[in-house]
Design goal:
It contains eleven helices and ten strands. The N terminus is likely disordered. The protein is an alpha+beta fold and 386 residues long. The chain starts with a helix and ends with a helix.
């Protein structure tokens, strides 16, 4: 049925198209001679005032619409400038640090060679850890396993660190770590530090907190320095007139002299010395020579150190007490760890039992009872045979 309807509609369209074509072909223009079109109706005309109002509205809209502004690149320019400045600071600061450390190493190297048989390691004499951290190692000296001179310089290559220094100034530092033989000297904890840094150091360094306290010293010691010691007699052994004279001369450069048998440098070699100095300027390398000579002098003094019998017994007793306290803490920590492990195991067991049926749970309980019974029988057998 649908096909018949569609065929009928198609036939009607074809016939209409044919008739329209014939009409177009036989159209006669003479039929419309003398025909005058009707005049336009005034009501259909658009009033002029309406046209003017529309034009004014469009003009006002165009004037009030902001013109697109040309794109600016202020943000991109600022970031590009920061990157360029950061790159320049990095390059210049890196070169300055390298020049500073090489100047000092070249100056002290002859003095190091007079004290140690071998300078440097597999990486060379001067080893660069970062753009502001370098070190030199030396070995081969009596009573001394080795020495390391670490140059911790200002982060001149870092723009943000330089800006931070405006509020928190920093200085170039020379840190000298010395490892000594285990029998080099008796049990000793002794330090000379800046008076304003005393509390901070006692919190940061455990050996000073456990063993050392303020000690009476010579009146010639600079006012800005203080002594922390296990006993007063150590100050007289280390702070000889020559040492005090050097401390007076270079008071502003001395930050720390630290002697300890508690492994402040290495846990493998407990007895060690540590010195911290403000690095002298490149124009005064002789100051670095004198400070290094002070270190070598103290390395030589340490093996000659002798404590009185009373001071020796006091030092050994204090170390035994601390060792016992530490052992108790370790034992308590092990017990807490075992208890925690037991609780975790019990928690897992309860979680696994919660998913069991009544029959499975009863079967598991019977197995546990049998296991506990066997343990008791084994213990009883041991007691009888014992």
């Amino acid at each position: 049925m649908n096909r018949l309807v569609f065929a009928g509609v198609l036939l009607i369209c074809i016939c209409f198209h044919g008739i329209s074509g014939e009409d177009r072909k036989t159209f006669n223009h003479d039929e419309f001679e003398g025909f005058e079109p009707a005049p336009p109706d005034p009501q259909d005309e658009i009033p002029l005032r309406n046209v003017k109002s529309v034009v004014e509205h469009v003009s006002e809209t165009i004037r009030s619409t902001p013109l697109p502004q040309p794109r600016t690149y202020y943000v991109e320019g600022v970031f590009a400038t920061i990157l360029v400045v950061y790159g320049l600071v990095y390059w210049i600061g890196r070169r300055l640090n390298e020049r500073t450390v090489r100047t000092h190493v070249d100056s002290i190297l002859p003095l190091l060679k007079t004290q140690f048989s071998h300078i440097g390691d597999s990486d060379g004499v001067l080893v660069k850890e970062s753009q502001s951290s370098f070190y030199v190692r030396a070995v081969g000296r009596q009573n001394c396993i080795g020495i390391q001179l670490s140059f911790e310089l200002r982060r001149r290559q870092d723009l943000f660190s330089l800006l931070l220094e405006l509020a928190f100034p920093s200085v170039d530092t020379l840190i000298i770590d010395v490892l000594l033989e285990d029998d080099a000297y008796p049990p000793v904890v002794f330090a000379v530090c800046k008076r304003r840094e005393e509390k901070k150091l006692r919190k940061a360094l455990k050996d000073l907190a456990d063993f050392a306290g303020p000690a009476s010293t010579s009146e010639d010691l600079p006012e800005s320095l203080c002594v922390l010691s296990e006993s007063d007699e150590l100050a007289g052994s280390f702070l000889t007139p020559q040492v005090i004279q050097l401390l007076q001369s270079y008071e502003s450069m001395v930050q720390l002299l630290h002697f300890s048998d508690q492994g402040i440098v290495s846990q493998k070699h407990k007895k060690s010395l540590q010195f911290k100095f403000k690095l002298p300027s490149e124009d005064a390398p002789e100051k670095g020579h004198l400070l290094l000579k002070l270190v070598f002098y103290l390395i030589s003094v340490v093996p000659k150190l002798k404590l009185s019998k009373q001071a020796q017994q006091k030092a050994e007793k204090r170390r035994a007490e601390l060792a016992e306290e530490q052992e108790k803490k370790n034992h308590q920590a092990r017990q807490e760890a075992a208890q925690e492990k037991k609780l975790q195991k019990l928690k897992k067991t309860k979680e696994s039992w919660a998913n069991l049926s009544d029959a499975e749970r009863q079967k598991k309980e019977e197995k546990l009872k049998e296991k506990e019974l066997r343990k008791r029988m084994m213990k009883s057998a041991k007691v009888i045979h014992g």
